[in-house]
Amino acid sequence: MSKKKRKSGHYCKICSEYKSNESFSGKGHAKHICKRCSKKSPTEQAADMTMNRLFNMPFGKLSPAKKSWLENRLHDQCEEKVEELYWGFQEIFAPAYSEEEECKKDMELQTGIDDLPF
Questions:
Q1: Going by C-beta distance under 8 Å and a sequence separation of 6 or more, which residues neighbour residue 36?
Q2: What sections of the chain are H helices per DSSP?
Q3: pTM for this structure?
Q4: What is the residue-averaged pLDDT of the chain?
Q5: Who's near 38: CB < 8 A, 6+ residues apart?
Q6: From the centroid of its chain, how far is CA 16?
Q7: What is the CA radius of gyration of the chain?
Q8: Cα–Cα distance between 91 and 102 in angstroms, integer?
Q9: SS3 of 81, please?
Q10: Staple 23 to which of 19, 52, 64, 92, CB 3.0 to 4.6 Å?
Q11: Per mean pLDDT, which range of 16-25, 33-42, 48-57, 72-81 is the poorest?
Q12: 10: how many CB neighbours lie within 10 A of its CB?
């Protein structure tokens, strides 16, 4: 069996991407922050890290620590972040129906036993 290929470069914890070594400054490697993200203000960095953590959170049972972290995010002062999170979860969890699927469902409901050709 061959060995697993490792990803080249380093992981940026703010934008949650693997980037090349050149994308990091000398001290950025240890901090796991790329040059582009290091130019952001600390509040923007924290907001991006929070959003990435929320969107990358696994489905299923949550540990008590993750539950308490999520509850604290509901009471954040930044309304934009909470609203963005709400709409993000709506896109993930809401069933996405196209107009064609809705028409097919309506047609299935309208056809009765008397309408069948046999």
A1: 15, 23
A2: 28-31, 35-38, 42-55, 64-74, 79-93, 99-110
A3: 0.56
A4: 74
A5: 25, 28, 31
A6: 11
A7: 23
A8: 18
A9: helix
A10: 19
A11: 72-81
A12: 19
